[in-house]
Amino acid sequence: MDENPPFREQLKSLVPKINDRIAEHLSRYIDASSEKYGQIAGEYMESLRDVALAGGKRLRGALTYHGYGLMQGDDTDVIFDIAVAIELLHTYLLIEDDFMDRANMRHDFPTLHGLFLRQYGPQVGGGDGAHIANSLAVTASLILAHIAMEIFHQADFPAVRMQKASLILHKQMQIVGHGQMFDIINMFTENIAESDILHMLEWKTASYTVENPLLVGAILGGADEEVLRILSEFAIPLGTAFQIQDDIIGSFGIVKKTGKPDTGDILEGKKTLLTSYVEKHGDNEQRNLLHTVLGNPDASAQDIDKLKKVMIDTGALEYATTQAHDLTDTAKQTLIANKSLFQNEESYRFILGMADYLLRREF
């Protein structure tokens, strides 16, 4: 039974509103691109729009909306364009992430480089189709990132708040970039400590998935430094728990729900709390299996299943799950202890309810 029905109901009501605003903005950019650059530009911009609207929980847009709502009561319509900008920046990062992960599907919809491979691959010939599709997707993602920032800066908020929110946003995008760098470097680095993995999770996910949208929304709502400090203390452990749960889902999730294979993280050689725990607590045979299978694109399905069993037998799965729960509890207690700082009960309940949702989600 859902412990907090209002959260799901609030999120469900926000998703179509955010999607409608995304479609409205991107339709204008499609028309403008077609007019200035021609039919081909209109076609690849349509693909960009299709990917931006394909699935997605809109958690970051919802957090932006309710971060603003914490400080501004019920007058929240003005924050929707900022929520759109945050979501389009998320799409930009997903496009690049899908390219790096060699993922051709997300939420049962082709990724952008997958769409471009279908569109332009037959025209290229030879073995260059995939490279061309990847190149087009990365370039289109950069266009989308700057569309997002243009939408952001055209929003009607006091200049001082806009400047502060913009600086936070640019800082957080740098942090997620560094987090992604370490996520990749960790794949070919031996003896990664658990603390290094947790730092990477904070940089790659926590700062950008939870902290960034909350702070941007709250700043535009007029939050002072004390409120921003509390929101950060809430966001970092929760965002870290979100990524730990995401890593668990990456190996133990139900494929029909996630829309992604449950072998991807293992085949890519992704270093997580699961692999770190096996490395530290497994016996020689279990560690040898880890070293043989993790990051081996030729690993068989049977070997991958064996490694997953090792993650269970060593207690790695239980440990990672416990860590995610403990971090979520820490985040919730921070928010609960400072409830008096927030002006809107609905936004407060949404953000608190989201903590439980992120922990229980299956995709």
Structure commentary:
The protein is an all-alpha fold and 363 residues long. It has one domain (5-360): Farnesyl Diphosphate Synthase. 78% of the residues lie in helices and 1% in strands. It is built from 16 helices and two strands. The protein has helices at 5-37, 39-52, 59-72, 80-101, 112-124, 129-153, 159-187, 194-220, 225-252, 255-258, 264-268, 273-281, 284-293, 301-313, 316-337, 345-360; strands at residues 105-106, 109-110. It has a two-stranded antiparallel ribbon. Helix 8 packs across helix 9 (225-252). The longest helix has 33 residues, at 5-37. Mean pLDDT is 92; it is low at 1-5.
The total count of helices amounts to 16
Mean pLDDT across the residues is 92
Largest sheet: 2 strands, antiparallel
Q: Termini separation (Å)?
A: 18 Å
How many DSSP-defined strands?
2
Highest CATH level, the class: Mainly Alpha
CATH topology: Farnesyl Diphosphate Synthase
Q: Order of strands side by side in the largest beta sheet? A: 1-2
The helix content is over 70%
The gyration radius over C-alpha positions equals 21 Å
At CATH's second level, what is the architecture? Orthogonal Bundle
User: In CATH, what is the homologous superfamily?
Assistant: Farnesyl Diphosphate Synthase
Instruction: Outline the low-pLDDT stretches.
Output: 1-5
